[in-house]
Amino acid sequence: FCGRKGPEAIQVLLPGETSASVLRTAEGIASRLATEKACTWLSANITALIRKEVKLGFDRLKKSQTVQSTNASEVPGALRNCSPECKHNAPPPSQIASEFKELLSITLGPKHSDETVDHKHLDDLLRRLCQTLRCRQYICPVIEQALAKYTVELASLLVAGVIPLSNPNMKKDFRDHASLCKSLQYSLRLLLALWKDDFRVPVPFQLIFSEKNISYTIETRNRKLCWNELSFLIRGLTEEGLMKTAEIECYWRDLSQHSWPQDFMHVIKSVFGMCSELAKTHKMEDQVANEQRHTD
Length: 296
Description:
By secondary structure, this protein is mainly α.
């Protein structure tokens, strides 16, 4: 950043008739000094910032534990303990949270052009998260809520196609459209299973339909692929009973109030249509189930 912005600042500050050699020298000095000052500031402050973040997280943890112990009589035993068969050898929640942060930082932060995420490593992370959630010995509401949020953010990024997934069987990344779709949908199925069976805190599904996460879908090059994966995710959420079609329609209605490209407005209309069809299907299934119960 300093190397890019330093020369720009020097060109603004120095007069236009400055010779090229003087300009290059001044740019180099400015960039070097700015980099040194940035490094000095980071060395002096980064430890304090980390300590502050850890202390705030610890204070929240203590507060949540106090509330939990106060209401212990109201909390089912399954929420506090894992199963009798558990051997307590699952990865610790802090390790899984750190891996999720690293994964999200590769996607959303500055990265090298050849920096990718192995899709097998991603699926392995989701399986280990499943083990962590099923072993309740070291997990608490605060860290579980954080993990739930990370998984929702991950699903949004997978749908938007902005995670640089790689395939070890190919040279660098996915070259086959069909294999990419298959891999994405497999990861989304793992997430749906986690949300349905393993999380014991409310999962913030509304983040999927936030303006920020939907904007990733619009900015991507392959919108058709994104729309297919978004449809797959929405169907999964409704079929697994994680969200009602009325909720999704409400979120999409809010999104339609924003200024979007015209082609994405067609996507919003398509979502409404799909939700209506899903609602009709679920209603028919409920009617058939009720009739079957009466018959029995």
